[in-house]
Design brief:
By secondary structure, this protein is an alpha+beta fold. The protein has 3 helices and 4 strands, in the order ββααββα.
Length: 92
């Protein structure tokens, strides 16, 4: 299951998240909500705390090496190189 495979561009895939990615997503979402609440309660400067979270996700998405995907027709889950996944998304 941890083997990195090639994408068959004639098939359909959907992007999945690993457990770690999902936990990081939940944590950063909760932090963003807390910072938004603080913005309304305290001051507008708390809104700047959301900026590092946005930067983190942008950098993380661009520089990670592999992507977890599922083939839509068969339900096969596999890891593919992120560069190949970006090419696949541009094609579709």
């Amino acid at each position: 299951m941890n083997e990195i495979r090639s994408i068959d561009f004639s098939k359909k895939y959907k992007q999945l998240a690993t457990k770690n990615e999902f936990m990081i997503f939940i944590l950063t979402t909760l932090l963003s909500i807390i910072f938004l609440i603080l913005t309304f309660v305290q001051s507008i400067w708390c809104l700047l705390l959301i900026l590092p979270i946005s930067i983190f996700w942008g950098v993380y998405s661009n520089y990670k090496k592999i992507q977890y995907v599922e083939e839509v027709d068969t339900g096969t889950k596999l890891f593919v190189y992120n560069k190949e996944w970006k090419k696949y998304k541009k094609q579709k």
